[in-house]
Amino acid sequence: MCFLIAGIAAALSAFCYAELASRCPSAGSAYHYSYICVGEGVAWLVGWALILEYTIGGSAVARGISPNLALLFGGENSLPTFLARQHFPGLDVMVDPCAAVLVLIVTGFLCLGIKESALAQGIVTAVNVFAMLFVIIAGGYLGFKTGWTGYEVPTGYFPYGVDGMLAGSATVFFSYIGFDTVASTAEEVKNPKRDLPLGIALSLSICCCLYMLVSIVIVGLVPYYAMDPDTPISSAFASNGMQWAAYIITVGAVTALISTLMGSILPQPRILMAMARDGLLPSFFLDVNKHTQVPVNSTLATGIVASILAFFMDVSQLAGMVSVGTLLAFTMVAVSVLILRYVPPDEVPLPSSLQESIDSYMLRHNSDAQMINGENPAKSPGDPCLPLLGEKNVAVDCTVVEKLEALSSCTLDEENRRKIAGWTIMLICVGAFILTFSASNLWFSSLIRFTLCGAGGLLLLSGLVILTCIDQDDERHNFGHAGDTADQEFIIILLLFEIVRVATWVRVSVWLMIGVLIYTFYGRRHSSLLNAIYVPKAHVDEIYRSSGATL
């Protein structure tokens, strides 16, 4: 049940990522979507949170690989001395050379190119899937042989109630992370409008099925209260007389962690490159290798920092910060989908280097428009409009005043629709926040909790009803094909409050404040928006095409 609920939440997030990735296929993932739909300041905070997520996440995963490798070689202290963990009592530091070396090796693979990285990722993932299939098949055989003793417990199902199930869903939700990595590589996909949604949907479906089958088998072999929290799968087979299965499971665990490590380091350079492209980070991160088409400087910087953290720091205490970065990004992606459907930006900022192309295109566009309307493009705007000779009484369909009144009415209706939609989206966000915050905090009194839940639920429901009645923006198709209408920030924010504790919120707040200072004193002063030229979004593709630049 935990994996199913987490899978549904992940699927809703994946739908949002798939829609935005197909409409806006550019590097940067959630940062890029927030930049387009919400604004530069919010996008910076999202990108800054993603830097924390991927860097600490990669370091934490790397430190988890070395103990599993040691088990393959015979035990905890079986690794060579130069790779084994060493403890320095004076500094109270446990260094992990093996983790640092693994991060550098993975970084080297990622620098070779996206095809080579995909090949290596495919190999380790295939081994991982084989290990999971072994657990399902062999574990299912043992379960039918022993009568599924794990399900014969006196406490019955849901021993910790619905709250315990939701907390478990929030914990296992992060086993579905990965589709955001796919979205971050959108610029390196041949057909992003087709391949990105298909890849995200298939990978998520396969993961959900495998996770649920493995959990069904393992919980059926051993009662939940008797499981070894460190090695639950290996101990489940060992308790049923299959100690040799631990080696297969350990190989699967190592390959799974390596796959996760690659998935943690791969998107970070693309986000750094996107932020540098917008002027928010130094141009050092913009360098792309002409042969491999990989942002080499960003990849090396990410790998070196993650390697240092994996070598020196016990990042387990910081692991909760990874979840905050992930869920904040997912929430902003969900909000971006609503904005893109109902109030997409009218104008797009272009760099000042395209000034000449913009001027020539707009001049050509205006001339074509005048030709279509029967006007003489060479005529000066101040020339009087004289009637045609011999046609003193020319019949017209409507007067100029009527045309202006109709145009004003249409513009006013569109402006009102956008205003109502914008306020409604804000209403949904506020309602989802109030509802999830009050529902997940049990220290509130019953009266306050139910009152806040009712108020938040009413705001959320009212906003959804209003959005259902409002037409989506007619220009939304300029961004690509529309996807399913799944609005899922409620579930994501609920998981955010379920798993994140006060100490973690304090650490995240400090990190975000550092990001605000960097943005204030560097990002804003070097932003590409300072000298940007805003043009109607309908003309952006043609301007880039005429200039020969890439979007």
Give the topology, please.
Elements: H1 2-23, H2 30-37, H3 40-72, E1 86-88, E2 93-95, H4 97-111, H5 114-146, H6 161-172, H7 179-184, H8 192-221, H9 232-238, H10 245-265, H11 267-277, H12 296-312, H13 319-342, E3 347-350, H14 355-372, H15 400-440, H16 446-469, H17 489-499, H18 502-526, E4 533-536, H19 540-547
Antiparallel strand pairs: 1-2, 3-4
Helix pairs in contact: 1-6, 1-8, 1-13, 2-3, 2-13, 3-4, 3-10, 3-11, 3-12, 3-13, 3-18, 4-10, 4-12, 5-8, 5-10, 6-17, 9-10, 11-12, 13-15, 13-17, 13-18, 15-16, 15-17
Characterization of the model:
The structure is a single chain. The protein folds into two domains: 1-344, Amino acid/polyamine transporter I; 413-472. The two termini are 44 Å apart. The chain is globular and about 85 Å long. It has 551 residues and is mainly alpha-helical. A hairpin with a 4-residue loop joins strand 1 and strand 2 (93-95). Helix 4 (97-111) runs antiparallel to helix 12 (296-312) and helix 13 (319-342) packs across helix 18. The strands form two sheets. A two-stranded antiparallel sheet has the order 1-2. It has 19 helices and four strands. Residues 377-409 and 478-487 have low confidence and may be disordered. It is found in: Membrane.
Task: Give a short overview.
This protein is an all-alpha fold and about 550 residues long.
